[in-house]
What we know:
The complex is a heterodimer.
Chain A: E1 5-16, E2 20-29, E3 33-41, E4 46-56, H1 65-68, H2 81-89, H3 96-122, H4 126-139, H5 155-160
Helix pairs in contact in A: 2-3
Chain B: E1 4-14, E2 19-28, E3 32-40, E4 45-55, H1 64-67, H2 81-91, H3 95-106, H4 108-123, H5 129-139, H6 152-156
Antiparallel strand pairs in B: 1-2, 2-3, 3-4
Helix pairs in contact in B: 2-3, 4-5
Amino acid sequence: MTLDFTRNKVVEVEPLDDRGLSVLWRLKDSLLEAEIRMKVRVPDLEIVEAEARVSRYPYEHCAAVSELVKRIVGVRVSQGLRKIVRGLIGGASGCSELTEGVLECCNAVILHYTVPQIRIGERLAEQELLEGRRALLESNPRMAGSCIAFAPDSPLMKELGL
Amino acid sequence: MITFSRTMLVGAEFLDETTVRFHGILEDHIYAMEIEMDVRIPDGVVTAIEGEMKRYTNPVCPKAVDVLQEAVGVSLREEGWASRIYREIGRKGCQHFAEILIECGRCLDQARMAHDLTPIIATNPAASTTELAKRWLREHPEAQGSCMARSEEGNIGAN
Lengths: 162, 159
């Protein structure tokens, strides 16, 4: 059957020359078209610039996001981010699409740093990879239990003896 | 140069007036996965779900496909449904499966609105989407209140 609704979301991270990251997020669906641009300072990952615009929307109040997004300037991509961002721009007096968009931008920043680690892992022999994963878990204990691969009963955790 | 990008694609197909099927695709530099999820429209309950993990980082990751079944029975209308999905599908399965599932779930009301507005716009292309959306929202209280645009002070109360 034909589709009645489509949504396409894209988020991109691009390193800047001046020790920062540029993040661009775009949403285009049957009803809404929106964009967020953020600049994140490295190495503390503080959001130093944030802009948002909605060029097509079903509700008049959606246009208010360009003012709302300014509240996230100064927030760092670190622990407690979800709660902070939802408190600043979410809820019944905020914008749910903008909130999710900002969180997706921040998630993309984290994944931007994950890609090179995974690339290194792809070049390692099995034993080296295992040691690499052990080091990763030791340096980032929050990963334990974060998904099925790092669950206590996973074959990977058993192999690592954890 | 772009060093990380992620695309999430959602499509909503109305199988009949009581069931909407969501097709969700996530593709980024690291992961690629896809889900198909049926949702009962009147109560927002997930009635069926299937998934495929196409590109991943760990041989254990594909086991998360089975965990998707934990979403069956969850209502996208219940308070905190997205947190429940993060907990049950994300932590016990795969966080990225949870992300694309939640993206599909968050499209429920927009998909219903688009489904209802499509025939109106087809017969009257000049009709104002904003006016139609406002009227649709007044007639669908279950979709109200989740943000400033859908609140009493927002579009519902506006003339």
